[in-house]
Amino acid sequence: MIVRTWKSLPRLVRFMFRNAAIGIAAGWIFLGMLLWADVGGLYSLIAHSRLGHVALFLLFGGFAVTFGAAGVSSAVLLGHEFDEDDTPDNASKAPVTELKPALVKVAAKR
Hints:
mainly alpha; 4 helices; 0% strand
């Protein structure tokens, strides 16, 4: 069911979700390394705080937003996955109609 739903999304939406997830995962790994190494006493400060869970929530959210956007933007700028992709998705199956000009009679007033 999830695979069918995923395949029914437009290709651009899948592209953005996939690269945002990669960026969020990279950001959370980086945050984990920062906390593990206790850079600047960050982990010690959070561990000894009464509201450490709030600080962790804000850190994880901030890193997710920052690195998720960086993952999508770097993938767009590098042009991944859209070079020679000829497989149509559901959004491109819309009927194509030929456009013709409409003839309108106008009464000239002079």
